[in-house]
Amino acid sequence: LEKMTDLVAVWEVALSDGVHKIEFEHGTTSGKRVVYVDGKEEIRKEWMFKLVGKETFNVGAAKTKATINIDAVSGFAYEYTLEINGKSLKKYMENRSKTTNTWVLSLGGTDYRVVLEKDTMDVWCNGQKLETAGEFVEDGTETHFSVGDHSCCIKAVSSGKRKEGIIHTLIVDDREIPEAVE
Questions:
Q1: Which domains, from first to last, does the chain contain?
Q2: Cβ-count burial of 77 within 10 angstroms (0-12 exposed, 13-18 middle, 19+ buried)?
Q3: Which residues make Cβ contacts (< 8 Å) with residue 56, sequence separation at least 6?
Q4: What does this protein do (predicted)?
Q5: Quick one: which of 5, 46, 69, 159 has the fewest CB in 10 Å?
């Protein structure tokens, strides 16, 4: 196994199916470009004469589009920026916090990461999209699903404030789980 001597950037990207690690090697003498997603080689290019440019690839179960931009800043210094779905990583993550809720919990010694995609009401747990059952209740909706042998429910109730919108709460075995900040 060759050592990653030309590793110039590492990013962590939180998607619905999990947190993905993106690593980028850039050989500024050889022109080599290598992109790894979760330790797996996605792109390898040797002897690129143009040292600036971009590399586009997919990340995660939903094949989310990612692009690494390589820009020269001065002389032989380069800047590497990651875009997810055409937005800077920072903008993408800010937007994502508005469109998803994430909870991290431990049940019977196993760690779980539960993600609600608010636009589709899809629920993901540790990389898998779950089967859910939705129902209307007096004060909003409930989305029921199971994690292991635990019954789970995401309650959606109006905050009563227009700016806040709907509040989503995860309840596992009749216990409320605090939302995680990613």
A1: 7-85 (2.40.128.180), 97-177 (2.40.128.180)
A2: exposed
A3: 65, 66, 67
A4: Plays a role as an inducible effector molecule that mediates Fas resistance produced by surface Ig engagement in B cells.
A5: 5
Residue for token pair 């590399």: 55
Q: In this predicted model, what pLDDT tens digit does every residue of 78-105 receive, in sequence order?
A: 999 999 999 999 999 999 988 999 999 9
Structure tokens of 44?
A: 């390898």
pTM for the structure as a whole = 0.84
Regions of the chain where pLDDT drops below 50: 1
Q: Region of 164 please: left (phi>0), alpha (psi -120 to 50) or beta.
A: alpha
Mean pLDDT, the chain, as a whole number? 91
Q: What is the 3-state secondary structure (H, E, C) of the chain?
A: CCCCCCEEEEEEEEECCEEEEEEEEECCCCCCEEEEECCEEEEEECCCCCCCEEEEEEECCCCEEEEEEEEEEECCEEEEEEEECCEEHHHHHHHHHHHEEEEEEEECCEEEEEEEECCCCEEEECCEECCCEEEEECCEEEEEEEECCEEEEEEEEECCCCCCCEEEEEEECCEEECCCCC
CA 1 to chain centre: 28
